[in-house]
Every structure is written in structure tokens, then in C-alpha cells.
């Protein structure tokens, strides 16, 4: 019989499902090596349409034994509209949920504690990849600017990525120029190609820590993080 988690985190897709645990762990919160040990069950909803579906959210909220539920979603191009969509999904069960999303992310107490983080920073347009721009290491300005210009030129020359996905194209272009080239985003966080402990990441870490009531465990010097394999899983509803 599958374990019933008291804490779940709903995310849009498999990329989020892989990156978020690495980001959290890079900030000193141990996620757990095996699924049975995870501090939070993280579920990909296979798309924002499923994540922002009131009926789907209510199904998750009715799970036996659930105490805390988090939602991480991309703001995309209209942050206010996206927040209103999330709020509409929650209003029936949480009628006093605020009209504006706090800059530090939502944490709302109720029969089931609920939290919302909207990428990149609860205020601006963007997505997970926009958040990762906050984590570029020092002295990356010139290469990042070149990645932007390269994507612009590629678009002029027929590159097929959507304009709304320009931030994705830029981050993957920048990753293609690292050593080794072309790491996946979660691995780039894990291998410290990004700087996961930036000030912007600290705000996210605090939201996660306060929502899920977990503690920071600092590793000893020289301790090597064990590799975890978290294959994307379809959400079973």
C-alpha cells in the first residue's frame, strides 16, 4: 500500500519535480535519498492546466492524512492573472485568502495548511528558468548577455521556440557553454554550476522551510552529497 504523505508539493511538470528538491537540498534542507524518506511528496501535475484545476486541487486536499500542501507555479506573462487563477481554485475552502500574493510567497493556515510560490519571485513575469537566472554565478554577466543576443538572433533566423519560452532558450543556451556543456537544470543546481544559495534563493528557502516546517541541516565540510534519482512520475489522481 502506497505511503500516505502528510505533506505534498504540487508542481507543473517533470522539470520542476527534478529541480526543486536539488534547490532545496543545496540550501541545507535534506530531502531524503529514497522516496520513502522524502520530507515532502512532490507531484508533477503534467501541465499548468491540471495544476490550476479546482477539482484537481480539491482531490489533493481530500487525501487521507494530508496536513500541508504547497503549490509552485510559473507566473508566465501575466502574474496578476495567474495569481487570480490560483486564488479562484482555493477560495471555496479558504475564503479569507489574500487578494494579492505576498512577495515572500503565500502561507495560509487552515484545516490543511497551504502555501503558494509563483515563479520567479511572486511578483514578476517569468518561470522556473527565470528564477534560475537569479542563481547565475558571479562574473556571468558577459556570457549571459551573449546568450540573450544569441537567442534573439536565432529567433530572427527561424528558431522555433515560442517567444513566451525565451527564458527557457536563454538558460539552456547558457548551460550549453558550461563545462561540461548541456547539463540538465537540476544537475546544474546539484553540481553548483548555478549558485543555489543566492539571496533570491534564500527567500524561496524560507518559504519552503516555514510552509513545510522542516529544518536546515548543514553538511560537514567535505561531505559529498549522495546522488538521488528522481524519475518524473505521472500524478495519480
> What characteristic shape results from the CA principal axes?
globular
Uncertain runs with pLDDT below 50, 5 residues or more? 221-237
Give the strand line-up of the largest sheet.
2-1-3-5-4
> Could you give a short account of the major beta sheet?
5 strands, mixed
Mean pLDDT: 89
Proportion of strand residues:
5-15%
Between the first and last Cα atoms, what is the distance in angstroms? 15 Å
Q: Helicity range of the residues?
A: 25-40%
Alpha-beta classification: alpha/beta
Q: Count of DSSP helices? A: 9
Radius of gyration, taken over Cα atoms and rounded to an integer in Å: 18 Å
Number of strands: 5
What is the succession of H and E elements? EHEHHEHEEHHHHH
Features of the shown structure:
9 helices, 5 strands, 11% strand, five-stranded mixed sheet, alpha/beta, disordered C terminus, 237 residues
Please outline the helices and strands:
Elements: E1 7-11, H1 14-26, E2 41-44, H2 48-51, H3 54-61, E3 68-74, H4 79-90, E4 106-108, E5 113-119, H5 128-133, H6 141-156, H7 166-176, H8 185-190, H9 199-212
Parallel strand pairs: 1-2, 1-3, 3-5
Antiparallel strand pairs: 4-5
Helix pairs in contact: 6-7
Amino acid at each position: 500500500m502506497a505511503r500516505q504523505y502528510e505533506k505534498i508539493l504540487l508542481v507543473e511538470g517533470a522539470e520542476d519535480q527534478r529541480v526543486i528538491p536539488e534547490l532545496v537540498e543545496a540550501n541545507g534542507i535534506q530531502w531524503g535519498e529514497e522516496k520513502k524518506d522524502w520530507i515532502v511528496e512532490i507531484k508533477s501535475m503534467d501541465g499548468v492546466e491540471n495544476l490550476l484545476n479546482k477539482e484537481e486541487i480539491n482531490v489533493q486536499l481530500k487525501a487521507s492524512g494530508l496536513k500541508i500542501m504547497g503549490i509552485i507555479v510559473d507566473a508566465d506573462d501575466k502574474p496578476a492573472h495567474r495569481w487570480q487563477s490560483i486564488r479562484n481554485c482555493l477560495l471555496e475552502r479558504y475564503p479569507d485568502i489574500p487578494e494579492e500574493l505576498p512577495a515572500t510567497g503565500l502561507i495560509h493556515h487552515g484545516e490543511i495548511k497551504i502555501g503558494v510560490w509563483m515563479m520567479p519571485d511572486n511578483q514578476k513575469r517569468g518561470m522556473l528558468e527565470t528564477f534560475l537566472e537569479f542563481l547565475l554565478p558571479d562574473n556571468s554577466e558577459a556570457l549571459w548577455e551573449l546568450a540573450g543576443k544569441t537567442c534573439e538572433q536565432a529567433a530572427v533566423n527561424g528558431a522555433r521556440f515560442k517567444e513566451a519560452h525565451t527564458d527557457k532558450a536563454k538558460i539552456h543556451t547558457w548551460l550549453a557553454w558550461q563545462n561540461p556543456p548541456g547539463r540538465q537544470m537540476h544537475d546544474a543546481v546539484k553540481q553548483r554550476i548555478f549558485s543555489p544559495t543566492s539571496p533570491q534563493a534564500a527567500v524561496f528557502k524560507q518559504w519552503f522551510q516555514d510552509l513545510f516546517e522542516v529544518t536546515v541541516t548543514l553538511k560537514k565540510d567535505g561531505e559529498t552529497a549522495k546522488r538521488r534519482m528522481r524519475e518524473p512520475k505521472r500524478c495519480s489522481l
